[in-house]
Amino acid sequence: MTTSPQAGVRIVGSVRSADGRGIVRMEDVFGTDIDDLWSALTDPQRLARWLGEVEGDLRAGGEFRARFTSTWEGRGRVDVCEPPQRLLVTMSPGEEDETVIEAWLSAEGGRTVLVLEQRGLSPEDLAARGAGWQAHVENLASYLAGQEPSHWRSRWLELTPPYQDLAGNPIWQAERTSLMNFLQGQRRSVLAIIDGLDDDGARRVVVPSGWKPIGIIEHLAWAERFWFQRVLTGRAAPPPWQELREDHDPFVTEHPLGEVLDFYKSQCAISDEMLGRSALMARPSGKVPSAYAEELQTARDVLLHMIEETARHAGHLDLARELIDGRTGLGTR
């Protein structure tokens, strides 16, 4: 049994399957140089401070025994040791539960990026192993910062629900599917309501505030990009044209209707890709605007906000279309 998920849990890992076996991958940045991080990964005395006890030969070809704080205990073999960039070890070599752990280090200014994978896992173990490795990685960060590591099992329990989501737990998948269906339904309504209008029709102003239907479409494209790229993942792909200035009217655009529709569809596709790699209870990696900081603490919150945003503007478009040519009932929702 696991504890209730915390709102806004930071997730640094991902899980996947290939050829019937599971893979857990961690990626994080540490505020230390590459040599120091390498030492923390390979010095038995330092390993004991965040991962567990390791005894034996840690050079290439060497064998060792380990007892992790996760309670795992067994043999290992060092297959590749390339200081300070790459380490590859086989755990439980020759046994039924044999797996491979590989770590890559790269310098980034005065910091170091660590990518760590464990491969060969049972797919049924992905959620537990993902949560476990993140708890270890967090303890590594605490140790390097001169802080006491957290209690591994307590943190593992907290992290298990979001990793169950990433691993495809049916309960979490049902929630994800429901929310995605609502978002995609509202997007389809937006496109159905605008369908059939030519460029001139899409630029008609029918309300005193002056917004245009085509401007609403571009606004929704920027909203998809902002919330799911900049806020959720902290990284945004280059846009097809210059981003809007702060003094620009967000509901007016000079771009052709076809280009605006393509922009909207492409941003929706990127959003879906980002959401597919994010646990619903994961904390956004980017900066949440201060006006939304209290209510948008997880990927699920951001997803709900975008459902609300899209539905609101679908209603605006519905009204505009009726005033433009009398067409009603075009939305799919």
Compile the SSE list and pairings.
Blueprint: E1 13-18, E2 21-30, H1 34-42, H2 44-50, E3 52-56, E4 63-68, E5 73-82, E6 86-91, E7 99-108, E8 111-121, H3 126-144, H4 152-167, H5 170-194, H6 199-202, H7 213-231, H8 257-276, H9 299-325
Antiparallel strand pairs: 1-2, 2-8, 3-4, 4-5, 5-6, 6-7, 7-8
Helix pairs in contact: 3-4, 5-9, 7-8, 7-9
Give an account of the 3D structure.
The chain has nine helices and eight strands. With 333 residues, the protein is α+β, with helices and mostly antiparallel strands. It folds into two domains: 13-160, Alpha-D-Glucose-1,6-Bisphosphate, Chain A, domain 4; 171-325, Up-down Bundle (Four Helix Bundle (Hemerythrin (Met), subunit A)), CATH 1.20.120.450. Helix 3 crosses helix 4 (152-167), helix 5 packs parallel to helix 9 (299-325) and helix 7 (213-231) runs parallel beside helix 8 (257-276). Residues 1-5 have low confidence and may be disordered.
What's the story with the biggest beta sheet? 8 strands, antiparallel
Question: In what order do the strands lie side by side in the largest sheet?
Answer: 1-2-8-7-6-5-4-3
Number of helices: 9
CATH topology of the largest domain: Four Helix Bundle (Hemerythrin (Met), subunit A)
How many domains make up the coordinates? 2
The second-level CATH architecture of the largest domain is: Up-down Bundle
Terminal CA distance reads 38 Å
- For CATH, the homologous superfamily of the largest domain is named as dinb family like domain
The parts where pLDDT drops under 50 for at least 5 residues are 1-5
CATH domain class name of the largest domain = Mainly Alpha
Estimate the mean pLDDT confidence. 93
State Rg.
25 Å
Class based on secondary structure composition and strand pairing: alpha+beta
Helix content bin: 40-55%
- Please write the string of helix (H) and strand (E) elements: EEHHEEEEEEHHHHHHH
What share of residues are in beta strands?
15-25%
Principal-axis shape = elongated
Give the tally of β-strands.
8
